[in-house]
Amino acid sequence: MAAACVRLMTLKPIIHGTSSSTFLRPTSLKFRAYSTALMSPPSTAIFYQDHGPPDTVTKVVEMPPVEIKANDVCVKMLAAPINPSDINRIQGVYPVRPPVPAVGGYEGVGEVHSVGSAVNGLSPGDLVMASPPSPGTWQTHVVKDKSLWHIIDKGTPVEYAATVTINPLTALRMIEDYVDLKSGDAIVQNGATSMVGQCVIQLAKLRGIHTINIIRDRTGSDEAKEKLTKLGADEVYTESQLDVKNVKSLLGNVPEPALGFNCVGGNAASLVLKFLRQGGTMVTYGGMSKKPITVSTTAFIFKELSLKGFWLQKWISSDKTDECRKMTDYLLGLIREGKLKYDMELTPFNEFHTALDKSLGKLGSQPKQVIKF
Ligand SMILES: NC(=O)c1ccc[n+]([C@@H]2O[C@H](COP(=O)([O-])OP(=O)(O)OC[C@H]3O[C@@H](n4cnc5c(N)ncnc54)[C@H](OP(=O)(O)O)[C@@H]3O)[C@@H](O)[C@H]2O)c1
Asked: What range(s) does the Enoyl reductase (ER) domain occupy (predicted)?
């Protein structure tokens, strides 16, 4: 790698065009000294100076090269998703978030571009993912300590490698960690069209567990139901279909579920509770509707339901890096065997703000947006 200069740089943006297409360019470069330090290429990044509405605070910025220290690895990013938690971090409402100014994104995959002098076991051209996930993946080049990169099989489709950690791993952990489920048991979930929901359906099916799935009402709900059924869903209902006195009367041969997953809140959470059997457990892992969960007194006293919460970030941060990698390798194996798949839309990096609008729900229900660099 050619020697490069060490730069001290101040970002003074020149704003061209409207907010969504704005490019910020550094206008003052102060050259301090020339050295033989190994430097990354400049990086184009989705950057936010302050918290706020993601579609207004995020800008495309050209970042200067950074030094690649002895234990660092510089990765040329290939793909990174826009997850609901990325949006919450930019809004400033996620409990753990990088200090501003920051580059967006949290998980992603790329190809090793160059390595620091003390790095063994990773070489240019290797396919690596951020594992466990860490902030700043929405940029063309990321420099991080070697311990934050996990090498994976080059035959892995990049859009899956980019997305496997947060959502599929959440689905796997929630199925395994709360109730001792046996083949033939059932799970009920809302938000079934989400990436987590699609993974729950397939991972449960692999263990012989039935799924009862609740989706939002929409035009084209038959199409959404058909997609989930093809993935292995036993039952799929829109919320309005469940506006009946006894939801369990709809179940037919599927047993009453012992475990429920809620990522929506409001009425959709009440529906999960209504399906649960005596002594069942509902695990809440998201709040897409921003509405609170209401639980009847009956549910506690006579049905003896338990309410729990799951947060992957807390799970991983309790010294689970090795386990996290083992499980993502397992999930990537299922993906390569064609046993796990989910809906995604790959969007070129230069159309980031269109992908962001889709992720913000401005264009109706959309598949998971994955930025392709
Ligand atoms: N706790 C954790 O550790 C953890 C880990 C991973 C994910 N999550 C959470 O899991 C949830 C799903 O994430 P994901 O990445 O899998 O989602 P996703 O693929 O981006 O899909 C978004 C989902 O949210 C639904 N949705 C969007 N706005 C909604 C609203 N206003 N009311 C009801 N539903 C709405 C969508 O339904 P439509 O199809 O109807 O549009 C879709 O099912 C999110 O809440 C996320 O924060 C939590």
From this structure: 52-371
